[in-house]
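Course assignment 3, question 2. Fill in each field.
Student: A.L.
Task: Predict the tertiary structure for the chain below.
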Amino acid sequence: MSRDRIEECFTRCRNEGRSALVGYLTAGDPDVTTSEELLLTLAGSVDILEIGMPFSDPMADGPVIQAASERALEAGASIKDVFALAAKVNNAYPDTCIVLMGYANVPYTLGFESFSEQAANAGVDGVLIVDIPPEEGAICDHALKKNGLHRILLLSPTSSDERIKLASEAASGFIYYVSLTGITGAEMGEAAAVKQQVEKIRSFSGLPICVGFGVKTAEQAAKVAEFSDGVVVGSHFVSQIPKHCGDGKAMIIALEEAASAMRNAVERSAV
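Answer field:
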């Protein structure tokens, strides 16, 4: 892609004095048709849309997102559907960044060259592969870079100075800081401790830092937005789907309301 939409996104948010809102949904959940409507709904409220690639063993995810992968796979969702859904979001919301998030098995099986090319053609801006650490980046870095895709990397409360430095050098786009030592959907750590770690990472990296894992309420989102470049909300959005099983319209309304509340919280924290 000729545009660097991720860089544009954070520049725009900085100019507006606020953090970016990053929202996650699993592609194909609860089925491909409804997933398209849900992704388009969320894309209208967030700055960066994380699209989860359904996988049978999402080890970093909690029960809410694990169940989303199971529903998507049971409905027959495939990586082809992920690319198709990303393309539809890209066409409808050309200023919304798209990041694919998931596990190495999916792109490895397809082949990183083919995966990267198809992702770029679908309008994807970056990829976050949870289980490929910076030390193992040689397996995918060339293919991603060749196709203009950012490689988003994770850091956590237990990351050493050496690991923070390594990730800061290998990452592009932004750094995703995991606010807790656990799985997605668990309780977020104390905001003061999260802020301290974000400030520490800033001493090593000039990349934007987004904070996720455990942000469930508008109050938490507003607090995190005070010191981060982006607030990531995943399980809270995904949880709206099983609450309205079988009623697509209710799902859309619930997601719209949840996304609006988070967007308002982030914008209220603008300085």
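Instructor remarks: The two ends are 32 Å apart (CA to CA). The domain at 5-266 is CATH 3.20.20.70 (TIM Barrel).
Grade: pending
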